[in-house]
Task: inverse folding
């Protein structure tokens, strides 16, 4: 019975997507010029490749993958700092799994672990706090990488450590916010963006209202979209409907999870522990006000403040075009290293490492 119901659900979803594809083709015939829609979420990118969504679209409706993978936009200098944290045998470096194989200038966390460094994968920042409690003679460093989605959990971990008086827990922070980079990409005439499929996970925290300034200033449609094929297709339909009716506003397709105001409690926790700062993005450079630095009152939990790190000058691989991929100016297939020198087993750039990376998605599903 369960298998029969699952088949029926998949059949209905497939039929729904096909109907949407037909409607998109009809709408596209009414366009005065081709349109470029960018998704700014790594999970969207993976879904688009996995389900072959581009193949369902007419030629004048193009999807472009943007900088929606937090691991991918983390600069190589941060990876070098993370590797430097492993040099002291007293340190336990904790991280989400995607960071393990990201190449730094000279090494990666996986390579350091193979050489004996204590690097552990955790599934929550609170796991790292528990590790610090259980190992009072060691120093536990958590690698805080992510957009607004994961930042509340890291803030909560710092608050928990502060409340329990832990002195051996710290965070190497590289948190980023997404709306300002979207503004930068919108203003780039080379991309010629016509609309956004806005990230879903991030939007559960910041809410649909966060994109209103972008839509109003640049007169560009924005739709917060879910991850299923039908979600993505409906998001494209909604963007086309706005363009055909000359509207430029924010709409929420993913209303089952995203509200207009987002999650005020999560944003309050973030603001309690973090403050805006300038930060470096792989491919985009240093963007003012797009980072989240640990506030001075919690400096005791800032790994860069409490640890002495010997970090070499960052050196990028000049052949890696990950930065151009993240800006949406190059498809993975346009990189000469893709699927040749650079593979998931031997990645050259972060876009091939992360489970949300554009190159990883193209390698797994796009070839």
Result:
């Amino acid at each position: 019975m369960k298998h029969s119901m699952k088949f029926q659900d998949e059949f209905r979803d497939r039929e729904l997507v096909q109907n949407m594809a037909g409607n998109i083709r009809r709408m596209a015939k009414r366009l005065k010029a081709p349109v470029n829609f960018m998704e700014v979420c790594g999970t969207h990118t993976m879904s688009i490749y996995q389900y072959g969504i581009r193949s369902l679209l007419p030629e004048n409706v193009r999807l472009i993958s943007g900088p929606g993978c937090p691991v991918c936009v983390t600069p190589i200098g941060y990876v070098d700092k993370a590797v430097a944290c492993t040099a002291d045998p007293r340190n336990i470096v904790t991280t989400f799994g995607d960071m393990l194989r990201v190449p730094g200038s000279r090494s990666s966390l996986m390579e350091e672990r193979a050489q004996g460094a204590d690097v552990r994968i955790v599934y929550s920042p609170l796991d790292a706090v528990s590790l610090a409690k259980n190992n009072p003679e060691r120093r536990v460093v958590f690698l805080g990488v992510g957009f607004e989605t994961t930042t509340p959990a890291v803030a909560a971990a710092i608050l928990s450590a502060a409340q329990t008086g832990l002195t051996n827990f710290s965070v190497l922070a590289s948190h980023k916010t997404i709306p300002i980079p979207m503004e930068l990409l919108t203003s780039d005439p080379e991309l010629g963006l016509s609309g956004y499929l806005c990230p879903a996970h991030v939007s559960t925290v910041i809410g649909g209202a966060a994109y209103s300034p972008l839509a109003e200033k640049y007169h560009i449609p924005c739709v917060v979209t879910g991850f299923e094929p039908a979600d993505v297709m409906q998001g494209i339909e909604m963007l086309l409907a706005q363009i055909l009716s000359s509207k430029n506003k924010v709409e929420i397709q993913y209303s089952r999870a995203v509200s207009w105001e987002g999650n005020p409690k999560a944003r309050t926790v973030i603001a309690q522990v973090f403050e805006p700062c300038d930060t470096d993005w792989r491919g985009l450079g240093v963007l003012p006000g797009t980072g989240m630095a640990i506030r001075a009152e919690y400096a005791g939990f800032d790994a860069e403040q409490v640890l002495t790190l010997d970090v070499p000058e960052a050196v990028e691989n000049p052949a890696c075009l990950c930065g151009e991929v993240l800006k949406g100016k190059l498809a993975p297939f346009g990189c000469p290293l893709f699927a040749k020198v650079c593979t998931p087993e031997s990645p050259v750039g972060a876009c091939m490492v992360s489970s949300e990376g554009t190159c990883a998605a193209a390698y797994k599903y796009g070839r």
